[in-house]
Amino acid sequence: SKQCIYCGFDPTADSLHVGNLLAIVLMLRMQRMGHEVVAVIGDCTAQIGDPSGRLTERDQMEQKIIEKNVAGLRDNLEAVFKHHEQHFWKREHQLIPLRIVKNSEWYNGQSVVPFIGAVGRHFRLGKMMTRTSVQQRLNSGEGISFAEFSYQMFQSFDWLYLYDKYNCRFQIGGGDQLGNIDSGHDFVKRTRTKDVYGILTPLVTAETGDKY
């Protein structure tokens, strides 16, 4: 049956890079199989920063830089899917168009206290502390800020919102996203009593082993 599958993209640069390759290939494959694919550009969560795979905290990005990067990612994603359909898709039936959304669409207008009260109560510090991304930072000299520590809660809420609006039951992410995807799975299952699933891709890394 037709499913909805999403993948998140952080607007930390103004274009896609080789590290996005496997996730995009998987999104295209799912689209070819008749599923709906959603690209979520994390323009709101970019102000927080994902600690996954990082030993130091990112500098906070200016809003105008985030907006520029969002526009670049949107253009790239639209071009990739458009060219794939024009030049590589030879079937008779139409592909379901790629849906691109920004997570500011559901965070703008949110008030901090009601959000923490409604969402934060479903997260346990003990389990959040066990995430690899958190442990790596705690064991480094850098430590981890509350902002980055809370990132997994926001990514989990993204999934809940997409589940409620689009019945999105699958999330694609790199191997470093296991902790965030696991948090999202638990959050959706706890609040909606429905199973959702993560699909992990291997990380494409530089020769040094660092992710792009």
TrEMBL record:
<dbReference type="InterPro" id="IPR001412">
    <property type="entry name" value="aa-tRNA-synth_I_CS"/>
</dbReference>
<dbReference type="GO" id="GO:0004831">
    <property type="term" value="F:tyrosine-tRNA ligase activity"/>
</dbReference>
<dbReference type="InterPro" id="IPR002307">
    <property type="entry name" value="Tyr-tRNA-ligase"/>
</dbReference>
<keyword id="KW-0547">Nucleotide-binding</keyword>
<dbReference type="GO" id="GO:0005739">
    <property type="term" value="C:mitochondrion"/>
</dbReference>
<keyword id="KW-0030">Aminoacyl-tRNA synthetase</keyword>
<dbReference type="GO" id="GO:0006437">
    <property type="term" value="P:tyrosyl-tRNA aminoacylation"/>
</dbReference>
<dbReference type="InterPro" id="IPR024088">
    <property type="entry name" value="Tyr-tRNA-ligase_bac-type"/>
</dbReference>
<keyword id="KW-0067">ATP-binding</keyword>
<dbReference type="Pfam" id="PF00579">
    <property type="entry name" value="tRNA-synt_1b"/>
</dbReference>
<dbReference type="InterPro" id="IPR014729">
    <property type="entry name" value="Rossmann-like_a/b/a_fold"/>
</dbReference>
<dbReference type="InterPro" id="IPR002305">
    <property type="entry name" value="aa-tRNA-synth_Ic"/>
</dbReference>
<keyword id="KW-0648">Protein biosynthesis</keyword>
<dbReference type="GO" id="GO:0005524">
    <property type="term" value="F:ATP binding"/>
</dbReference>
<dbReference type="GO" id="GO:0005829">
    <property type="term" value="C:cytosol"/>
</dbReference>
<keyword id="KW-0436">Ligase</keyword>
<protein>
    <recommendedName>
        <fullName>Tyrosine--tRNA ligase</fullName>
        <ecNumber>6.1.1.1</ecNumber>
    </recommendedName>
</protein>
<comment type="similarity">
    <text>Belongs to the class-I aminoacyl-tRNA synthetase family.</text>
</comment>
